[in-house]
Design goal:
Helix content: over 70%
Distance between the termini: 36 Å
Number of helices: 13
Shape: globular
Strand content: under 5%
Number of domains: 1
Order of helices and strands: HHHHHHHHHHHHH
Number of strands: 0
Length: 265
């Protein structure tokens, strides 16, 4: 039964990767800790392994709708965000934990709500195809700054940051949500690989090898979910993807609010 739940939960969360362009780590982690009973660090490592497979295969599956020929012209944008996000991830890993967690959670909560409202109520005019700034230097600097913030938040929350990368690509670079999803996966992949290489050397990684059957079921379910999500991509309007993303951002904001509320009570 445990393996069945591993497979089914992987499929449901993996479908987000195929449809929207998310690794689904923020939804998978509470299940691994709360439902399956893994220790937090072990759950984080398992989450990284599953997310890495979802991100990689979602990118491949989505290529039938959003081809690599559409992604390649945006290589500079990918590098632009990566410059900031990798640096931000480094800062987050080394210094963010020194900041008061309450203050950090409030910042993340505000950002999530702003992005959610933008996606939910601004989806009709967000998809303009035009970047926010015409000046390329200003746009590049803005991309780096956004990347730094994404990297810090992703490092603190232990996720790839797709729920922040996609709105950034839509709002700042004027991308279509479908294209933004695939480019987000391209940006997330190096970050996931970096995290995976770091965790693979830890003692906890050796421990989770004993859970390889559980992980295989979840990975297999995730891949099926990612494949089904990618099939839906060609039938779902870009504006609906923006709406779905807005709902996901609100759910993430609610989770951060609950954590903040529990710490204050």
């Amino acid at each position: 039964m445990r393996n069945f739940f591993s497979f089914s939960s992987g499929a449901i969360i993996g479908s987000l990767g195929g449809l929207i362009g998310l690794g689904g780590a923020e939804f998978r982690l509470p299940l691994l800790v709360g439902f399956f009973g893994f220790a937090t660090l072990n759950a984080v490592i398992i989450n990284k392994v599953i997310s890495l497979s979802v991100v990689f295969f979602s990118l491949l599956f989505r290529s039938h709708t959003i081809g690599f020929d559409e992604i390649l012209p945006h290589t500079f944008t990918i590098i632009n965000i990566l410059i900031g996000s990798l640096f931000g991830a480094y800062i987050g890993a080394n210094y963010a934990m020194k900041i008061k967690q309450e203050f950090l959670n409030k910042i993340i909560l505000i950002l999530l709500i702003i992005l959610a409202l933008s996606m939910l109520f601004g989806h009709n005019y967000l998809i303009s195809g035009n970047p926010l700034f015409e000046n390329k230097i200003v746009l590049f600097v803005s991309g780096v700054i956004a990347g730094v913030l994404i990297g810090i938040i992703a490092a603190v929350l232990g996720v790839a940051g797709g729920e922040f990368i996609i709105p950034t690509l839509i709002l700042l670079f004027g991308m279509d949500p479908k294209l933004a999803g695939s480019i987000s996966l391209c940006i997330s992949l190096p970050t996931m690989l970096m995290a995976f290489s770091r965790y693979s050397k830890s003692e906890q990684f050796k421990q989770i090898i004993n859970e390889k059957v559980f992980m295989i079921y979840m990975i297999f379910g995730s891949l099926i979910g990612a494949f089904l999500g990618s099939l839906l991509l060609q039938y779902v309007n870009s504006q609906y993807i923006a709406l779905i993303l807005g709902c996901i951002l609100f759910i993430s904001a609610w989770k951060v609010f609950k954590v903040q509320h529990l710490k204050n009570s």
